[in-house]
Amino acid sequence: MNFNEDRMYHIGLKPSHGAEYAVITGDSGRVESIARLLDDPMFVQSNREYTTWAGKLSGQRVLVTSHGIGGPSTAICVEELSRCGVKTLIRVGTCGGMALQVCGGDVVIATGAIRAEGTSREYLPVEFPAVADLEVCNALVNAAKNAGYTVHAGVVHCKDSFYGQHSPEASPVSYDLQNKWQSWLRGGCLASEMESATLYTVAASLGLRAGCVLHVVWNQEREKAGLCNLTSESTESAAKTAINALKALILS
Question: What is the pTM of this model?
Fold first, then answer.
């Protein structure tokens, strides 16, 4: 396949649509609302699970693109955005809390990710850590704290199977899923999601800066422990954290 064609094969963007900065998010339904936090937002393109809007932030063009669910579609998104000139990416996503102090509605900044998915292994050996860019990570933490959000920064769990997390007992490899889950908990893992490890390893292999801010929907471990366990669906706090962090990075 010729990747030098005028339009990216999956995300549908032309190099002329490009920008140095991008916010990426799993759900295409979130793209417009995130883009409207920018100046002069406008629809650019939609193809498959990839929808893109663009706007400006402190005079710089910023793309907002959906990457779909899981590692493979995220890797494609990052690869093709890179070919359009993107150098800095921030993922806005959702997660399920794991550590008991992480509650629904909180914000989690993923400093690193457990590589329990498969896509990242096609970029870097599993011994290579999936970690956020330090400058991007610090900008996200500062933005969340300045906004008064309850924020947690640390390692998250990244997997391929949503139901392998939520119904592990139904899997023929339940023993492996459940034992490893306990290991992640004992290691202080904050939350679980499905894209951060891929984002970080693909970014590292391409020489990009990347960070990830997650909205906590709920916490299954708090549920098991009989603790108060609010469910929160809005990702507004995570989106605003990403935009404010990106602004700080642009101005730095």
Answer: 0.95
Dist CA 220 CA 208 (whole Å): 33
AA letter at 95: C
Angle between helix 71-83 and helix 196-206 axes, rounded to 10 deg: 30
- Measured in residues, the chain has a length of 252
What is the average pLDDT value for the chain, to the nearest integer?
Answer: 96
Query: 3-class SS at 248?
Result: helix
Taking a C-beta distance cutoff of 8 angstroms, is the pair 23, 243 a contact?
Answer: yes
Three-class secondary structure of residue 141 per DSSP: helix
Q: Where are the alpha helices (DSSP H) in the chain?
A: 31-35, 71-83, 134-146, 162-166, 174-186, 196-206, 220-224, 236-251
**Which CATH entry fits the domain spanning 15-251: 3.30.43.10, 3.40.800.20, 3.40.50.1580, 3.90.420.10?**
3.40.50.1580
Cα–Cα distance, 209 to 203 (Å, whole number): 6
Q: What is the pLDDT of residues 59-81, one digit of tens each?
A: 999 999 999 999 999 999 999 99
Question: Closest by alpha carbon to 111, among 154, 147, 140, 160?
Answer: 154
